[in-house]
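Record type: monomer structure entry
Structure origin: computed from sequence
Chain ID: A
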Amino acid sequence: MRNMGLFLLSLSVVALLFVGCEKEGTPQVEEPDPDPIPEASSWDVIQQRILDQRCIDCHVSGSSFADQSDLILTADVAYEQLVGRAPKNAAAKADNLLLVGTDGLPSLLTSYLWEKINVRDQEHFFADHPQYGAQMPVGSESLTNGELDYIKEWILAGAPREEYVADVALLEDSSRYELPDFEPLAPPANGIQLHVEPFDVAPNYEREFYYYEPLNNAEPLYVNQIEISMRRGSHHFIAYRIQDNMPSALLPTAGVIRDIRDENGIYDVNVLATTLYHSFVAGTQWPLLNYHFPPGVALEIPANVKFDLNPHYVNRGNETFQGEIYTNFHTVDRASVEHVAKILQLNNFDINLPPNQVTTLSKSFTFGGRRHIFQMFSHAHQFMTEFRVYVIGGDRDGDLVYITYDWEHPPILEFDPPLTLEAGEGLRLETTYDNWTDRTLNFGLLSEDEMMILFGAYYLD
């Protein structure tokens, strides 16, 4: 039964220690820790302890990330690149932001760098500045509260290069911002709201199901903003569209939960069969998502759309908890839409990960025509340690355009301007997994199986 279910599914979807010898009667002289570049100022602290550790993997000369942002953060140029310079991002530049200014408090309020790294104010970032792109660092954990406080104090002091203006003890705070508790979303002024009402997730169990909700919209809808709010414990939520060619015998009953697995973990083949007729519309692994499409771009929701909503919750505790999900699709008039967004979905179902071994898988995808990609994000499970995406073909062949080390909350990367790929060019997915178990891992739905998927969005000429 499980093999049949997986078959159907595959169709659809440092420390350096120094020891010295002490001679009897010889005075002991304590050597200072080696430091090739002494920290002579707060800027040096930021460079060596934050930028060098968290940023220069991407913001280095020659990388696609540096080209995209026009920002290099290696020690030889980082200060000149940041201080007193306008950002490349068109929306931030139009808002008269600088990457970092030298006017103290006013500069904190007009700093594009601060907007991008201040995860503690992410609700403001995504709600008020949707065109500023993703928060940084992309693909890994946010800066610690101590790192954020240190950079903040430096900006408030006028962002000097040569002085100590912030207490290094701030960096001892290694805590990180945590998302707020779940709250229902207010319905959109223009658009629709979908709600998966509270449901139980049993202890030591992964609950995943489909929930059919026909919209009965007489005309197509054009979506330029998507909000999703989920109770904690979610692995993912996806809103699928049921294709028009689904046999009537498979069409589910509206408002009824269809569990993919029973309480014993056995797959329901009849439920899995419906996945053959699913088309991805929207989804996230973030507990709270507020995504705006670029200006003039919207996703078309066809008339009389049939949504099949797909929550997946994981309970590794010993008590039952509840899941719940709200989704808002904000809509605009068709006349304001210059480009209709299309969904990017690249899957690798050929996954074989030997036990107790690190394995890297690669798969390439070539496109038949020009496309302008403006968004991408990865999807994998708990054994993934790194997910990379490279351009193949053309002038940018080999450019790294996406990377993450976070399987639970992968970043949503936005391209402004879009990443344009011509006919015959494409993308190569390269994903590394650490299978620490004693069993071979294959493609599968459970978080204890694995996946290798790149989602995103693009438009055509």
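Annotation 1: The longest helix spans residues 42-54.
Annotation 2: The two ends are 45 Å apart (CA to CA).
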